[in-house]
Design goal:
Elements: E1 2-7, H1 17-31, E2 35-40, H2 60-69, E3 72-78, H3 86-94, H4 96-103, E4 114-121, H5 126-140, E5 149-153, H6 165-191
Parallel strand pairs: 1-2, 1-3, 3-4, 4-5
Length: 192
């Protein structure tokens, strides 16, 4: 099985809280022999638009091929003012053509795949963000199993904190290890 994590962090050079949480979750995915790849959207030249290919130099078509080859798709984002990041929004917009194909009567390119959500932020609306992703997954043909979200709402993520990565990982393991385990088991269960 293969999993692709789309990382919507805004941090190009620094390791973000969301990236650290993805690495934490990857550890649990790999325990189930799931091959994982992390795509940090901010590191790619993704043109704005709502079609699969927006022209020469657009890296989205290569990313979409990786998504199509995976069994598990995980959308990971920080919360900014109660919504996902602008990087994640661009990815969602670029997947719009897949929805158009379904409304035209074609089979979803994501048929048989499962999706999950990873969210970091403070106390600013993970539930509504997860419901928005659920609606989007439904529209493009992804299965969104129960308990397939991992949200960490912690003061350790505050903009001015700069909590060291090893401290975050220790905190995640203690407070969210059981949730991560259940997340992965749901992914595997609904693929069978």
């Amino acid at each position: 099985m293969k999993a692709v994590l789309l990382l919507g962090t805004l941090k190009k050079k620094d390791v973000s809280n969301t990236e650290t949480l993805c690495e934490f979750l990857i550890g649990y995915l790999e325990k189930e022999n799931i091959e994982c790849s992390l795509i940090k959207l901010v590191d790619h030249n993704i043109f704005p638009g709502t079609y699969t290919n927006m022209g020469k130099g657009d890296e989205w078509p290569k990313i979409l091929k990786q998504l199509e080859a995976a069994d598990i798709l995980i959308f990971a984002t920080p919360i900014w003012w109660n919504v996902h990041s602008s990087e994640m929004q661009r990815a969602i917009e670029r997947l719009d053509e897949l929805h158009d194909e379904i409304t035209d009567g074609k089979k979803s390119r994501f048929n048989g795949k499962v999706a999950g959500v990873v969210v970091t932020g403070d106390s600013d609306g993970a539930e509504s963000l997860i419901s928005n992703f659920g609606n989007f997954f439904n529209a493009i043909g992804l299965l969104f199993p129960p308990f397939s979200s991992l949200t960490v709402l912690s003061d350790k993520h505050a903009k001015n904190k700069n909590t060291p990565k090893n401290e975050l990982l220790k905190h995640y393991k203690k407070e969210y290890g059981e949730t991560a385990e259940k997340f992965v088991k749901q992914m595997v269960k609904y693929l069978k």
